[in-house]
Every structure is written in C-alpha cells, then in structure tokens.
Amino acid sequence: MNRELGFYINPHSRERRRIMQNLSAGGVRWLGIDGTSWHAAQDKARILEFKNEMKEYGLKLYSMHSCLPVLAVPGQPLPEELFSAQKQELRKGQLLESSRIVYHSCHFRDCPFPETDQAIAVAGEKKFMTHYAAAVSALAEYAAEMNIVPVFENIYFSTYSESFDFLKKVLEMASTANTGICIDSGHAFLAGGNPADSIRKAGSRLRETHFHDNFGRFLPPCISTSPSPYRFDLHLPPGLGLINWPEICMALDEIKYSGPIMFEGVLASVGNEKNTIFKGRLTCRDLIRLTIDNWRAFESLALK
C-alpha cells in the first residue's frame, strides 16, 4: 500500500520555505511541527504566515509535538497552572488546524527522564495511574472542543512507557474516545523491542507515527555524537539503521492503519547540516528523497 507521507519540520527554521518547497516537489502532503513557543493570541500573525506558506505549497498540518508534559509529578493531580498552559497550547493547535497533538508519555515537568521510574515508585503505581488517567481525560475533553486528538508517545527512559501496556490501560481508565497512541519507532527499538510488535499491540488505538531509524544502543565508530544519554536516538531516515522496516509496513497493514506516515526528526539538521552526523554531505532534498524512496521500497517488500 502506498500511504500518504508527512514530515516533521522546525517551524522556526530560516530554511522553512525551502523545506516546504522540497517536500511539495516530492509529493508530500502532510506536515508535523516540533514544539513551538508561539502563543495563540500574541503570535497570531506568525501562525497565519506559516499557514499561508503551507497553503502555497499544498501542505496541511497533521500534528504538532507538545512542549508540555501530561503531569508535573507522578503522585499528584494535574496542577491548574499546567492545565492552563496545556489549554493555551491546544488553542494554538486549533488555530494551526492540527488534528493531533503528541505528548511524551511518562514525561513529568518536575522529574528528569532518567528518574521517571524512581519517581513513579515513590508515588505508588496505583496513585500514579489514577492521576495520569484523570489528566488524560481532562486533556482529551478540552482538545475535543478544538477538534484535536491527543496522542501519547512511547519513550525509552521508563519501563512504563517502553511498551504500550501502560498506555492502553491508562487510556481505558480515561474512558474517552478522543485519545490515541503514537508509535515512535526509534524509541521502541532503543527500549530493546521490535517496533512492529509495538504497532500490533497498539492496534486500533494507533493514531500517529513518528518514524526514524537508529542502531539501538550501539554507535558505529564512524558516527560521532555528544556523550549525552540521548546520543543513540539518531533520528536517521528509515533504512540507515537496524530497524526492520518491511515488518513495520506489514504490521501497519495488519491493524489497518489509515493515517499518513509521519517521519519525525529526519530533517532536524536542515539549516545546520555541517554540525550533524552527515557533516553537510546530504542536503535537505537528499534527505527527503532518501526517506521517501526507502519507504516506498519497504512498502513494496512488504507486499504479499
């Protein structure tokens, strides 16, 4: 199946128009945007300018990454000031006409990623899940008024978010249809799992993809990155790492996924090419073409 494709871009990039032009020329219809500091009221002119550029190139916004967590800490309810910020962000999403907003699951405002499981253990799993489900329900109710579906993405710094067991249970507890799951292929692979199995587990709740590649918790000697805990999360175009992409295509067919395929982070280097692992040897157009061609090849390999 030849699915519609979309790419995440940085809306603040000086290369924004060039990226849109190259995406449009490649037959891409959808965009996602990384977290942006735009405010729905104060930055309305900038938002409208961005929308006009999308329209010029025949593009539509499918999803936006939230800048915010779901909760402040695991053991306490959603604080009013955080919920107020979430609602402001959703109003921005409505103005941008985004159909999805993506939250990192098990991400807390007052807790670093590596300390997530320890913080949950201190709070107690039952209390944590109760507060998380209540926050998801509140987010989903307000987002529905904006015609936006909140989706929750797997991360690899928490055993609760490495697979979709926790997320499916929390979404059931939240008792709302206006939610979904986002599969981040790179995060699933870094957690030691098979992204295709994660897709199968998400099933009908899958509402968004963040597709990119990596080598797991191993870096080839030719790749030089900073010694941060995030250094393995390379966001390479599919096919440049070790993920089994034909099986991912098969899993998407099995669950009858109907949304566009969104590639996240593969264009993050555009405008700063010389400071990335490609050292400026691949242009924006190269990365787009490589991603599309590889994906179409994987779709063909997956055909029965």
Describe this protein's structure.
By secondary structure, this protein is α/β, with parallel strands linked by helices. The protein has a single domain (5-302), classed as TIM Barrel (Alpha-Beta Barrel), CATH 3.20.20. The protein has helices at 16-25, 44-56, 80-96, 116-123, 125-145, 165-174, 185-190, 195-202, 245-254, 284-302; strands at 5-9, 30-33, 60-65, 100-104, 149-153, 180-184, 206-210, 261-263. An eight-stranded parallel β-sheet has the order 7-6-5-4-3-2-1-8. Helix 6 links the parallel strand 5 and strand 6 (180-184). Helix 5 packs across helix 6 (165-174), helix 8 (195-202) runs parallel beside helix 9 (245-254) and helix 9 (245-254) packs across helix 10. It is globular, with a radius of gyration of 19 Å. The relative contact order is 0.14.
In short, what is this structure?
The chain is α/β, with parallel strands linked by helices and 304 residues long. Helices cover 40% and strands 12% of the residues.
